[in-house]
């Protein structure tokens, strides 16, 4: 099939508009805020075993509740932007929601099979599984940045786990502090980068 110059130019313009809409959806939508929210939750909750071990269980219950409710609210708020977001982008957003929901179910299945695990294994496994989802989302959205964040944070979790096993980092409480600062901090700064850079 032969395309005229005008048809080719229009097709390229449509691709450019769609790409811009996706970047706006990611940068101006809830993604940056959601990543920052979960980074803050991870920083607080992973640090609890170091600073306040008796609050560890309650801290995660409260932190996850804040994270899930905040994510749902930010996502719902974003769907209200009917004049900005096309039906196609709304469909992609729903698919991303389904991907995360199913990913959490699969992660729970993996954790159930791994039982019994200790706190270090659990913390590292959660981070690696969730960062796998970031890499998948990055591949799907053709976002090298999300792929980079997923690989970086997962790599930091695995490195910290093995550094702790050989005794260089200290005990498991220090490993949890590592996860708080290195993984939670990376998430927090990545979310801020998304909001500031992807405009």
User: How many β-strand runs?
Assistant: 0
**Domains, number:** 1
Tell me the fraction of residues in β-strands, as a range: under 5%
Number of helices: 7
**Which structural class is indicated by helix and strand composition?**
mainly alpha
Shape: elongated
| Average predicted local confidence, pLDDT | 82
Low-confidence stretches: none
Layout of strands and helices, then pairs:
Elements: H1 5-28, H2 31-51, H3 56-79, H4 87-114, H5 119-141, H6 144-165, H7 172-197
List keywords for this structure.
199 residues, mainly alpha, 7 helices, 84% helix, 0% strand
Structure commentary:
- This protein is an all-alpha fold and 199 residues long.
- The chain has one domain.
- The chain is 84% helix and 0% strand.
- It is built from 7 helices and no strands.
- The protein is elongated, with a radius of gyration of 19 Å.
- It starts with a helix and ends with a helix.
Write a brief caption for the model:
With 199 residues, the protein is mostly helical. The chain contains seven helices and no strands.
């Amino acid at each position: 099939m032969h395309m005229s110059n005008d048809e080719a130019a229009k097709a390229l313009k449509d691709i450019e508009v769609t790409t811009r809409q996706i970047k706006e959806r990611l940068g101006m939508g809830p993604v940056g805020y959601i990543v920052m929210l979960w980074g803050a939750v991870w920083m607080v909750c992973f640090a609890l075993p170091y600073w306040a071990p008796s609050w560890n269980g309650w801290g995660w219950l409260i932190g996850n509740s804040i994270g899930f409710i905040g994510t749902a609210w930010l996502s719902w708020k974003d769907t209200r932007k009917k004049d900005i977001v096309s039906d196609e982008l709304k469909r992609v957003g729903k698919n991303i929601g389904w991907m995360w929901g199913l990913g959490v179910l699969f992660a729970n299945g993996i954790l159930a099979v791994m039982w019994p695990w200790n706190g270090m294994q659990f913390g590292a496994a959660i981070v690696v599984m969730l960062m796998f989802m970031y890499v998948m989302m990055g591949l799907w959205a053709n976002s090298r940045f999300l792929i980079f964040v997923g690989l970086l944070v997962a790599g930091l979790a695995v490195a910290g786990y093995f550094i702790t096993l050989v005794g260089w980092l200290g005990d498991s409480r220090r490993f949890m502090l590592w996860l708080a600062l290195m993984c939670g901090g990376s998430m927090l700064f990545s979310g801020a980068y998304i909001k500031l850079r992807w405009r």
